[in-house]
Write a structure and sequence with these properties.
The protein has 286 residues and is an alpha/beta fold. The chain is built from eleven helices and twelve strands. The protein starts with 11 loop residues before the first helix and ends with a strand.
Length: 286
């Protein structure tokens, strides 16, 4: 696959492992009966991956892996690289190889490409809506099981930032932790005592009083949960730049700019990964 070099490129072994699992699910024990019955083994073919709608592309590695699994000599020439915009009707990649490989790998290639491009497209819409406001949109752990690394990659391709990938990456004390621990002071104090020097501590708060108590404990970040714009602005003034402030809850394309303009650092949007519609891409035979 050619295209612009990308420092965010996914590890190839992760891509091929995911594609292999998807192909196993799709092929079943007997393989692609239709293609095996109707297409000669050595028949060559060329095709184009075309954007039916405009959007931001992500997931070219998966398309390449799906075709190369059946034909090591197959080639995918990307004319729109991951992270770049594709106009409606544009050819985003040209594919060449054995016809059987292209036909059998088509659905898995497009499933990944459409899904990840949909996430990148929605993320780009949110990021564009707050351009210049000083805040950054980030994703959450509300991801499809087994696809988290790929969905978070797509968020980056859309111009967003990643929250923690796993529970082991940082301490995030949420409302249920606070309730189970017996209060925000106890929860934060215990977390601070347990956290190593490399582990950051974030606490979720719902009121300005809780924010004040979190600041007293010297946390690294505060998640401002479901606060209206007026309260968010007050929280920013109280924090005085001491911690990273993350706004969360009820964020839409309609209100994200007003949230960003309060001065928060991050705006987390679960919809980026759990509700992004797939970008319509198709494989057109040449």
């Amino acid at each position: 696959m050619s295209g612009k070099p990308d420092a965010g490129r996914l590890p190839q072994f992760l891509v091929y492992r995911a594609v292999a699992a998807a192909l196993e699910e799709d092929l079943g024990p007997a393989g692609d009966l239709t293609t095996l019955a109707t297409v000669d083994a050595d028949a060559p073919a060329k095709a184009r991956i075309v954007a039916r709608k405009a959007g931001t592309i992500a997931g070219m590695q998966f398309a390449e892996a799906a075709f190369k699994t059946f034909d090591h000599d197959a080639s995918l020439e990307a004319s729109v690289s991951d992270g770049e915009a594709a106009a409606a009707g544009a050819t985003v990649a040209s594919v060449e190889g054995k016809a059987r490989a292209l036909l059998t790998g088509e659905r898995v290639a497009l499933n990944y490409l459409c899904h990840l491009s949909g996430i990148a497209t929605l993320t780009h819409a949110f990021s564009s809506a707050i351009a210049g406001a000083g805040a950054q949109v980030c994703c959450t752990r509300k991801t499809t099981p087994g696809l988290r690394a790929f969905e978070k990659y797509a968020v980056r391709m859309g111009g967003g930032a990643n929250h923690r990938f796993t529970l082991s990456q940082a301490i995030l004390i949420k409302d249920n932790h606070i309730a189970a621990a017996g209060g925000i002071d106890k929860a934060v104090a215990r977390a601070r005592a347990q956290a190593g020097h490399m582990v950051k501590v974030e606490v979720e708060v719902e009121t300005l009083d809780q924010l004040d108590r979190a600041l007293e404990h010297g946390v690294d970040a505060v998640l401002l949960d479901n606060m209206d714009v007026k309260t968010l602005a007050q929280a920013v003034k109280r924090a005085k730049g001491q911690v990273v402030l993350e706004a969360s809850g009820g964020v839409t394309l309609e209100n994200v700019l007003s949230i960003a303009e309060t001065g928060v650092d991050l705006i987390s949007v679960g919809a980026l990964t759990h509700s992004a519609p797939a970008l319509d891409l198709g494989l057109d035979w040449s």
